[in-house]
Structures are given as C-alpha cells and as structure tokens.
Protein: Transposase DDE domain-containing protein
Organism: marine sediment metagenome
Amino acid sequence: RNSYSKTDLDAVAMMMKDKLTIRPAYNEGICVENGFVLNYIVSDSAADNVSFIPLMEGVICNLNKVPENANADGAYGNEENHSFLEEKEIGDFLKYNTYHKEKSKSWREKRIRFSDFTYDEEKDQFTCKNDVILRCTGESEEITKTGYRRKIKTYKAEEENCLSCPFRSKCTEGKARTLQVSWNAERLKQQAQQNLDSEKGKELRTRRGNEVESVFGDEKLNKRKRRYHLRGLEKINLEAGLYYMSHNVRKIHKINQEKTQKMVVLKKKTKMVLTEMLNRNVVGVIPMAAGF
C-alpha cells in the first residue's frame, strides 16, 4: 500500500467513495463550526479515528479554549476518542460504528449480540439466552497504533454446553462462544448513546450533516477540487491549509456582503416611509424632505 504511487511516495492505496476504485490518496478531516473550518488534518491513514485527537488538539490551540461539544460520524467513535473527550470535559456526541444498526430489529435478530447476554457483576460472568454461563478466562492489554492501552477481559463458555445449543448457528462459528469486553469502552459507549439520543444530540447530528458535508460538497462540486495538485504529505498539508483559509475568507466576505445589503434595504425602506409621512402630514414644507 505504501509504494502504490511512483510519483507520490507518501500517498497510500485507498478505496474511493464509489467503493469500487482503489487509488493513491490521502485522508482529509476537518472541524467545522457554523460553516467555518476551525482545523484540518491530512493523513496517510485510511482510518478516520486515528486523526481525531490531533484534529481536536488543533482546534483547542486555534480557539485558545476547549469546545463545549464534539459531534462526528461513526468512523470516529472508539474508546480512545471517547476517553479523550471525557478527559477534556467535552460533550461526547461521537457516533460509534453500530449506532444505527443497533436500532434495527433485523440486525439484532440476525445474530446473538453482546446485548443479548446478561452480566452478573458479583460473580463476574455472563449468561446467554440458553442459560449457559460464560466465565472470565483472563485479562489482557491491547496497545493500538497510536499507543493507547485498552484493558480487555475474555469470557468463554464450556464447549459441551454450546454443542447442542439451539441458538448455536446465530451465536458462534467456533466450538464455544467467546466475549471480549473492554468495560471502559462499554461505559463510554453508553454515555455517548445517551447523548446522541437526547434532543441536543439530534440537533447536533442534523447540524453535522449540513455544516461539515456542505464544506466538502462546495469543495468538490462548486470549486471542482477533487484532486491535490502537489505531491508529498508536507506540501499536501500546505495546499489544504491554503484552500480552507480561502474558504473562511469567502465565508466572512459573504456575511459582510449580506449585512451591507440588509443595511441598504433598511435605508431605502426608512427613506420611503419617512418621505410618505412627510408628504401625507407636512404638505408644502419642502426643507423637511431635503435631507432624505
């Protein structure tokens, strides 16, 4: 993947939006508030979630304050990013990858999911639909590519209990069902779910679609910028930075232009009203109308 392009050695092979084409590419992420781009990041990783923390740290640096809330799509919702928001005391409205699927009845019934198991906190064990017990077999630590450490506990059922289980075909393809659980991730996931299902969460989800996607849409469709013109990650970052600076300048100019137009319209309406009042009530007094 890293040597996919011979003219840009930093570019890596990535699947395009059409889900069919693989091309040398970069992954670009942005933070947006009311149409203004607060920060951007360009990386050579196909995974969005690894760029979230650097992106947010840049926002905090640019604003010189911590944002109140953070909202993103399902590609960003993982334990590391949820933990970062909790540490910074930022409202966590990150979707996780199964957020919408969990609300689907067909998805829940297709397989035996984690939520179908009952947990006994006192005994530290799970019980399945068929009353088979999954006991804790050990605890391990997983280190991600970014250096984040996850504590994972493994729970496993006895093989003889799973062999004749009527739910076996929907539960496991192995000899016995195994659950790997990060309790910290589950806690953070439940908090995010509550936030997303709240009225504030619904509002932010709607705004994210309008604000973030419209910036990308404007870039690709209106400005016809679908490819980078430079080569190398360092130069690509400069190119992206210049574009988003110009985007913000255009946004400011548009707002000022709209304010100016409103003032012009207001002055015209005021002049018309005053002129009408003078003509109606002060007929023949010409000097009164001379200043409008």
Summary: The chain has a mean pLDDT of 88. The first strand starts at residue 12 and ends at 15.
